[in-house]
Amino acid sequence: MNSITTATYSVHFNENAYLALNDHLANSNYSKIFVLVDENTHNCCLPVFMSHIEGEYDFEIIEIEAGEIHKNIATCTQVWEVLSELDADRKSAMINLGGGVVTDLGGFVASCFKRGIEFINIPTTLLSMVDASVGGKTGVDLGPLKNQVGVINQPQMVLVATEFLKTLDQRQLQSGYAEMLKHGLISDASYWDTLKEITGFEKLDKLIYTSVSIKNEVVQIDPTEQHLRKTLNYGHTLGHAIESHFLESEEHDLLLHGEAIAIGMILEGFLSYKLTGLSKNELEDIKKTFLARYPKTSFTKKDIDMILTLLKFDKKNSHGNINFVLLKSIGKTAIDIKVTPELLKESFSYYAE
Amino acid sequence: MNSITTATYSVHFNENAYLALNDHLANSNYSKIFVLVDENTHNCCLPVFMSHIEGEYDFEIIEIEAGEIHKNIATCTQVWEVLSELDADRKSAMINLGGGVVTDLGGFVASCFKRGIEFINIPTTLLSMVDASVGGKTGVDLGPLKNQVGVINQPQMVLVATEFLKTLDQRQLQSGYAEMLKHGLISDASYWDTLKEITGFEKLDKLIYTSVSIKNEVVQIDPTEQHLRKTLNYGHTLGHAIESHFLESEEHDLLLHGEAIAIGMILEGFLSYKLTGLSKNELEDIKKTFLARYPKTSFTKKDIDMILTLLKFDKKNSHGNINFVLLKSIGKTAIDIKVTPELLKESFSYYAE
């Protein structure tokens, strides 16, 4: 499978991935190489990763606790302190081996350590392969607010090794699949149709490649999120607020990112039907597709009020306005759409129907 | 006084400064404008600043505690939380009004908030005017380690309004003057001679302009500190370690940054005499100049051991080597010079003589 080239680095797949990495390490003369893992990837992925490394390197392994709840400044500070203790310098590098928490946090830690050291991302979840492998977004949460602190900075390379997908349970695969469905909704109706038809997650390689390609095209046209890149936030305005609310709430179990944006895509589908011309049939198709794959969640009136309050922290907002990305049709988007609170509440009623 | 143009922004002086700021604010359509101050600049500088602002803006004032000891991630987190509470969005801007702590920390906070909002620096100390106004270095300390966490990111503009120097005591003025003397040592022997001759700090405007110009030339040639920009670290390798040690130590009073690098410049002058051809006369000139202006400090054997231990955290290090910037002569530098521990100890003996 060919590598995908972004503005500044390449995403290498499977058989090419470790060839590229071994070549890069052999030619980089890093003073030290740190591998950031969480408890899960330490056990399941690190041995696999190590088995592919040629040459002798004294990797230093840094483990953080798994889970979105640890994607915060306190964890960053711990990693910065460990890097200092282990004599990391500006010529050191960090390899982030894990899901979105590890790659988002690790990218931010590396970007700020001594004002920036090089880093390489090896996403191990479907979600991070299709979502975090392109675009250079790094960051951590601030309390319940997702990715409130971070920078845009590019890795040296990204490796997509789909063998790691074997370490994931069905729920985690579903979570990543939601982002792939989003790629269909925002840019390619036939890709949406293809994705809807798959019945299992055994043969994902080509689809992952398509998703990474779609995201790369969008980011290359608009790296700083002035217009087209905003479309990648479809389902995320409400999805992030729902995810944040469930992270804080004691009455709800945590939602995985893909589960939260699956709900967000139904809700914002309804808004699209009301405001930007999405047809009734397409709306029903979106709702049916997601509800067949993701558990239906109940929202109390209080939940909805709190979710709508959290919307004001969305990073696309400006001047007090909440800006939505909506669909004109499947595969076509409209950006910077304002929505009234009444219609937002109506979207939750439609979801509950 | 003409503005100095860097690669991406301008440094405006005195009569031009507020003209440029008022013009910029009027044309920027920021959703909110935050002014970051510390306790001191809140009292002494904010009223002066406000008196120059034309137009109606609801500035939100954020105050942090004064002092290097508060230039850390905990303070950043507090400011990020306040920004979130006050509904800052990506179209908001931050004006950092203060010394190096406020501009370094404020620049870092702005660079990471929602992955980056615009910021403007208004240095109010002599040190931050001549040192922090050019180069885009932002960051905070990690425990005793100076500027261990940060990014390189440029402000929208920098205003140098020398009227703020009236708010400083003699010791703070001396601290900034040390950086100016460094500019002479690393690039211009006649500027060094001019600076040595001044007897008071009443007429600094032209000298500040010269210092900012020197730093700007260096940074424009080497923005990412591969070679020439390293020369700005003259006196800082040992100076930072001394500053860090005194920050941690209960037996010593705090040293201001300029006081610490003044010692560092004598010590590294001695190393230059031993290793890179600085003449005996020039070394004596450097020692005499700094000791006439900065209090002589006593170092115990234990102090020296701890300072040498801290050297390993210097950001110019790589592959376990400590890299010094030394002088070939006054006005001419040599970079990436390795020094033995024995010679480092000898430099402290020379300082104590």
UniProtKB/TrEMBL annotation, chains A, B:
EC identifiers of the protein: 4.2.3.4
Organism annotation: Arenibacter aquaticus
3-dehydroquinate synthase C-terminal domain span: 176-317
NCBIfam families according to UniProt: aroB (TIGR01357)
PANTHER family hit by this protein: 3-DEHYDROQUINATE SYNTHASE
Domain of life of the native organism: Bacteria
Residue ranges of domain 3-dehydroquinate synthase N-terminal in the record: 62-174
Cofactor(s) needed: NAD(+); Co(2+); Zn(2+)
Statement: the UniProt record of this protein carries the keyword Flavoprotein: no
Name of the protein: 3-dehydroquinate synthase
Biological classification of the source: Bacteria, Pseudomonadati, Bacteroidota, Flavobacteriia, Flavobacteriales
